[in-house]
Design goal:
Blueprint (H helix, E strand, L loop, with lengths): L1 H14 L2 H29 L3 E2 L2 E2 H18 L3 H11 L2 H4 L6 H31 L7 H27 L1 H4 L3 H15 L10 H8 L8 H7 L8 H30 L8
Helix pairs in contact: 1-6, 2-3, 2-6, 3-6, 3-11, 4-7, 7-11, 7-12
């Protein structure tokens, strides 16, 4: 009950700043057009119908898929928790009837619900008019949305863990940048992992990042390697395993970190 009320309250707050979301309706299609021109030039220069197993349409929509995934997962829990620790405001949140983990999750859920409504829905309509996604089906889109919800959970847990480092580091901005860069590079948030050398792809297999970007986008593109129910189910189960492990780690580290927290003043 407290969680749903917190989601509702946070969503009302974020909707007050809806103009910042609506700006993306103009910016995102411009980025799509740039990618269309870029990849058309690359494919024309190489004189190939496919590069590393991707057609021109798939490469254009892969970059669009990166934007879509960010719309589903983006939150700033790590900064909020760091601010609570540094300013001492954490003591106030500890007195609230809702656990801080669930309070931050409610804020992240409200932020993403607003983003999906004001960014993802308009984007996919406008994108489809500019460059129709011939590969997309209602089923692949539904599968994409489901794995993106799990990607959001995984990304939130990573951010929450980064936020808790503020108990020891105070300022975790450097660590935050390192994790974000690593996640983009090793998760397929810049280029498909298929473009990487085999040894680097094997490293990526042991990290959770590819389950945030690469696999959801593969499902969105309806690639043959992931369009069966068995492959999709395997991806979902692996995401759930990473989420369970991340939640357990958050719980254990919070118990250890909160013992060292001390706020002075009011």
């Amino acid at each position: 009950m407290f969680f749903l009320k917190a989601v509702q309250t946070n969503m009302k707050q974020f909707l007050q700043y809806r103009n910042s979301f609506l700006i993306s309706i103009a910016i995102h299609p411009f980025i799509l057009l740039l990618n269309i021109f870029l990849y058309r030039s690359i494919f024309a220069h190489n004189g190939a119908e496919q590069i590393k197993g991707y057609t021109l349409t798939e490469m254009i929509w892969y970059t669009a898929g990166i934007t879509f995934v960010w719309i589903f997962i983006w939150n700033f829990a790590e900064r909020r928790i760091s601010d609570y620790v540094v300013t001492g405001d954490l003591s106030i949140h500890l007195l609230k009837p809702i656990n801080i983990f669930w309070y931050e999750l409610s804020a992240a859920v409200a932020l993403r619900m607003t983003g999906i409504l004001l960014e993802f829905v308009p984007d996919i309509i406008v994108y489809s008019v500019i460059y129709p996604p011939s590969f997309l089906t209602a089923l692949s889109l539904a599968k994409f949305v489901i794995v993106c919800v799990l990607s959001f959970c995984l990304f939130f847990l990573i951010n929450y863990l980064i936020g808790m480092t503020a108990f020891a580091l105070k300022s975790n901005s450097g660590l935050n940048e390192f994790v974000y860069i690593s996640m983009n590079l090793l998760g397929g948030g810049l280029l498909p992992l298929d473009f990487y050398p085999a040894w680097l792809q094997r490293i990526c297999d042991f990290l959770p990042f590819k389950y945030i970007f690469y696999y959801p986008i593969q499902i969105f593109l309806n690639k043959e390697s992931v369009n069966s129910w068995n492959e999709w189910g395997s991806i979902v189960l692996t995401q759930l395993a990473w989420i369970a492990g991340g939640y357990l780690l958050c719980h254990v580290l919070w118990k250890l970190a909160i013992r060292k927290f001390c706020a002075v003043g009011g």
